[in-house]
UniProtKB/TrEMBL annotation:
GMPS ATP-PPase domain location: 193-388
Assembly, per entry: Homodimer.
EC number: 6.3.5.2
UniProt protein name: GMP synthase [glutamine-hydrolyzing]
Pathway the protein takes part in: Purine metabolism; GMP biosynthesis; GMP from XMP (L-Gln route): step 1/1
Name of the encoding gene: guaA
Native source organism of the sequence: Streptomyces silvae
Record-annotated active site: 78, 166, 168
C-alpha cells in the first residue's frame, strides 16, 4: 500500500486516485495519525498531500521527523513539500512569492528521478503563499520558477522527493508522469493493482464473510448498489436476494431496466415491490420540497423493511447480512478508519423484530466511483447501468415544482425521456454530469399552437458539468441539441408549451430544483 497523508482540503482523494491510475493501491490517512501507526501499515511509499495552511500558521499540521528516517520513500507535494523542507532543516518563508494557477516550471536537472524524460520547461499548477528558498542538506534542487528558487528537490539516497506544485491536477502537464516516476523509480513499486484483482479478492472475502447464510441488498437503480449487488451475487449466488422498491417516481424505462438488464447480466434473485400507490397517496397535496423528501424517505424504509420481513420468513438459512454500495469517499469523509461492522436495522419502524441485527457487506469500500464503474464492466453489467449519471433517491418527486400527481409524473417522464434520448443521440452523455428535467407544475404561460391559444406548463432543462456535485457549472450544450429537445418536447408532450434552460452555476443554485 501507498499511504497518502491528508493535510486537509480536497487534494488527498485526488492524489490517491492518481496513484491507483498508476496501478498501485493507495489509502488515505489523516495527518493526525501517529507516525508509528502509519509505519505499522508497512507502506511501500508515503505521499504528503497539499493543504490549506502555511507551515508557520498556528496549529498548522506537522509531522514527526521519524517519518523521514524510516527508510520509506516519501514524496511531498505543496504543503507536504514545505513540511518536508522545514522538518529536515531547509528554509521556507513568506517572501511574497505567491503563485496561483498555471505556472511555467524550469527543470534544472532533467535526468533526475522525478523529471526523467520530461521537458525542461513544463506547465504546472501552483497554489501557495510561502515558498522554499533553501533545500535541506543532502538534497538536490531539481526545478525552479520565476519567483521560487526551490520548486522541487530530491535526495535519491534517502528516497525523499518533493515538489512545490500539485502534480495530481490535470493542469500540471507531466504530473502523472512525475508521480509514476516516484512510485516506480523512486520507490521501486511494480504497477500491478487492477480492478480484476479487486473483483477476485472481494469475491473470496465475501464468501468467507457470509458463509452459508443469506444476504439482502437494496437496489436503487444507481451504479453503486448495482455493482455491489453484482459482486455479491457472483460470490454467493442464490444466497442473495435483491430488493427494488418502485416508488412510481422513477424515470421512463428505469424499473424495466433493473428488472431485465440487471437480472440478465447477473442472474440475481430480484424482488420488485410495486409501491407506486402508497407513495403517491403519501405525497398527495404536498408541495414543500423538504416535506416531500421526508415522506419519500420514510415510505421507502417502510416498504423496504416489509420486503425484508417477507424474505426473512421464507425458508432457508439465517438472513444475516445487508449489502451496501458504500464507496471510499464516503468512508474517508466519515472519518476513515474501520467503520461500523454492525447496524441495528430500524427496529422502530416497519415492524421488524427488535433483535434482528444485520452485518454489513460493503465490497466497494476501498473504491472510487470510476473504479466502481470498471468493476461493473468487469462483471458484465450493461453500459446503461455502469455509465449511469447520478439520479436522486427521491426521483422525479423532487423535479416537479408543486404537488406530485400521477398525471404530472407521466408528463415529466415523457419530457425527460426525450431530453435523455437527444443528449445520448448527440453523444453528450459523457460531457455532462447530469441533466435534471424539471416540471414547473404551478406555473402556466400563454402559447400558440396550430391555430389556437395554449396555456401550458414550462419544462426546465438543467444540464450541468461537475466533478463531484459539490460545485457545478451549467453545461454549454450545442444550440442544435437544445433546439431539437425543445421542439420535440413541445410537440410530443401534451400540456407543455415552453422549454427553458437553467443557466445558473452551483453555488448559488443547487443542481436539483428541490
Ligand atoms: P444538489 O441538488 O444538492 O444535488 O446540488 C447534488 C447531487 O446529489 C443528487 N441528489 C440526491 N441524491 N438522494 C440522492 O441519492 C437525494 O435525496 C438527492 N438530492 C440530490 C443530485 O442529483 C446531484 O447529483
Amino acid at each position: 500500500v501507498v499511504l497518502v497523508v491528508d493535510f486537509g482540503a480536497q487534494y488527498a482523494q485526488l492524489i490517491a486516485r492518481r496513484v491507483r491510475e498508476a496501478r498501485v493501491y493507495s489509502e488515505i490517512v489523516p495527518s493526525t495519525m501517529p507516525v508509528a501507526e502509519m509505519l505499522a501499515k508497512n507502506p511501500r511509499a508515503i505521499i504528503l498531500s497539499g493543504g490549506p495552511s502555511s507551515v508557520y500558521a498556528e496549529g498548522a499540521p506537522s509531522l514527526d521527523r521519524s517519518l523521514f528516517e524510516a527508510g520509506v520513500p516519501v514524496f511531498g507535494m505543496c504543503y507536504g513539500f514545505q513540511l518536508m523542507a522545514t522538518t529536515l532543516g531547509g528554509t521556507v518563508d513568506d517572501n511574497g512569492a505567491r503563485e496561483y494557477g498555471r505556472t511555467p516550471l524550469a527543470v534544472s536537472k532533467a535526468g533526475s528521478t522525478l523529471f526523467e524524460g520530461t521537458p525542461t520547461e513544463q506547465s504546472v499548477w501552483m497554489s501557495h503563499g510561502d515558498a522554499c528558498s533553501a533545500a535541506p542538506e543532502g538534497f538536490t534542487v531539481t526545478a525552479s520558477t520565476d519567483v521560487v528558487p526551490v520548486a522541487a528537490f530530491e535526495n535519491d539516497e534517502k528516497k525523499l522527493y518533493g515538489v512545490q506544485y500539485h502534480p495530481e491536477v490535470m493542469h500540471s502537464t507531466y504530473g502523472q508522469q512525475v508521480l509514476e516516476h516516484f512510485l516506480y523509480r523512486g520507490a521501486g513499486i511494480e504497477p500491478t493493482w487492477t480492478t480484476t484483482n479487486v473483483v477476485e479478492e472481494q469475491i473470496a472475502l465475501i464468501r468467507e464473510q457470509v458463509g452459508d447464510k443469506r444476504a439482502i441488498c437494496g437496489l436503487s437503480g444507481g451504479v453503486d448498489s448495482a455493482v455491489a449487488a453484482a459482486l455479491v451475487q457472483k460470490a454467493i449466488g442464490s444466497q442473495l436476494t435483491c430488493v427494488y422498491v418502485d416508488h412510481g417516481l422513477m424515470r421512463k424505462g428505469e424499473t424495466e431496466q433493473v428488472e431485465k438488464d440487471f437480472v440478465a447480466a447477473t442472474g440475481a434473485k430480484l424482488k420488485v415491490v410495486d409501491a407506486e400507490k402508497r407513495f403517491l397517496d403519501a405525497l398527495a397535496g404536498v408541495s414543500d420540497p423538504e416535506q416531500k423528501r421526508k415522506i419519500i424517505g420514510r415510505e421507502f424504509i417502510r416498504v423496504f423493511e416489509q420486503a425484508q420481513l417477507e424474505i426473512l420468513q421464507e425458508d432457508g438459512p439465517e438472513v444475516a447480512f445487508l449489502v451496501q454500495g458504500t464507496l471510499y469517499p464516503d468512508v474517508v469523509e466519515s472519518g476513515g478508519g474501520t467503520g461500523t461492522a454492525n447496524i441495528k436495522s430500524h427496529h422502530n419502524v416497519g415492524g421488524l423484530p427488535d433483535d434482528i441485527e444485520f452485518q454489513l457487506v460493503e465490497p466497494l469500500r476501498q473504491l472510487f466511483k470510476d473504479e466502481v464503474r470498471m468493476v461493473g464492466q468487469e462483471l458484465g453489467l450493461p453500459e446503461e447501468i455502469v455509465q449511469r449519471q447520478p439520479f436522486p433517491g427521491p426521483g422525479l418527486g423532487i423535479r416537479i415544482v408543486g404537488d406530485v400527481t400521477k398525471e404530472r409524473l407521466d408528463l415529466l417522464r415523457e419530457a425527460d425521456a426525450i431530453a435523455r434520448e437527444e443528449l445520448t443521440a448527440a453523444g453528450l452523455d459523457r460531457d455532462i454530469w447530469q441533466c435534471p428535467v424539471v416540471l414547473l407544475a404551478d406555473v402556466r404561460s400563454v402559447g400558440v399552437q396550430g391555430d389556437g391559444r395554449t396555456y401550458g406548463h414550462p419544462i426546465v432543462l438543467r444540464p450541468v458539468s461537475s466533478e463531484d456535485a459539490m460545485t457545478a457549472d451549467w453545461s454549454r450544450l450545442p444550440y442544435e441539441t437544445l433546439a431539437k429537445i425543445s421542439t420535440r418536447i413541445t410537440n410530443e408532450v401534451a400540456d407543455v408549451n415552453r422549454v427553458v434552460l437553467d443557466v445558473t452555476s452551483k453555488p448559488p443554485g443547487t443542481i436539483e430544483w428541490e
